[in-house]
Amino acid sequence: HVQLLESGGGLVQPGGSLRLSCVVTGFPTFSKSHMRWNRQVPGKDVEWVSTITNDGSKTWYADSVQGRFTISRDNSENTVYLQMNNLQLGDTALYSCATGVVDGHRGQGTQVTVS
Fold first, then answer.
1. N or C: more exposed end of the chain, with fewer CB within 10 A?
2. In the prediction, which pLDDT does 102 show?
3. pLDDT 10s digits, 36-59
4. What is the DSSP string of 49-98?
């Protein structure tokens, strides 16, 4: 079955950086699928962060992270990344990756705390 495993979260000071990874297994069409990152704060709705096309040629970002975050992928490793720079207090959330543009398979997430 499809599994998405995120890693790379942690505690970081404002202005710091983290690189999140999401390894996808059991998903033979990974290279044909757009991928995205979402984040969620307890008590609030899931917030879309970024999307990347199947071949990595196009990316989209939420206004709140534009210019600070970079999404990328390695189809040979079935992995999608999120480089997060200049982290701010408002970036604190549980970050998860997901297949496709909407719905799809999701991982359990990795916690990012900026403090």
1. N
2. 87
3. 999 999 999 999 999 999 999 999
4. EEEE-TTSS-EEE-TTTTTTEEEEEETTTTEEEEEE-S--GGG-EEEEEE
